[in-house]
Amino acid sequence: MASIWPTLARVPYRVDYVDAGGIRTRYLETGDSTSDEAVIFVHGTGGHLESFTRNYHPHGEKFRTLGLDMIGHGFSDKPDYDYEISNYVEHLLAFCDAMGVRKAHLHGESLGGWIVAQFAIDHPERMASLTLNTAGGLNTDPAVMKRVYDVTMNAVANASPETVRARLEWLMNSPDRVTQDLLEMRLGVYTQPGFVQAMEHILCLQHMDIRMRNVLSEETLANITAPTMVIWTDHDPTAPVATGQRFVDAIPNAEPLIVMTDCAHWPQWEKPEEFNALHLEFLGRHRVSAMTEEA
Question: I need a labelling partner for 62 at 20 to 30 A (CA). Which of 7, 54, 124, 152 fits?
Answer without folding.
Answer: 124
